[in-house]
């Protein structure tokens, strides 16, 4: 995968797009953010540091990916108090059935909009 989010045209040209490509296109997120989502699915409750180690990526890049996932409703963040004092944030991916529903809802909304554009076109 490239590190760009595919646009709808790219997606339509694929005879059998992957779930990751659909996720990237629908939410307008980059491939590294999709990889972060998948890593969270396999490692729920991870910290930024743990994910960075798991994914072999810089912590700042993982943190930006997590922010994007949070903005799109694809992850949750919880604060855990540490025994020694302080706290750490733990991240969990939105469960797959809910993420799939988010995708369906976004596509349904987009399709409705496109149908409206088609119906409203008067030749001018």
From TrEMBL:
Transcription regulator TrmB N-terminal domain residues: 23-88
Pfam families for this protein: TrmB (PF01978)
Protein name, entry field: Helix-turn-helix domain-containing protein
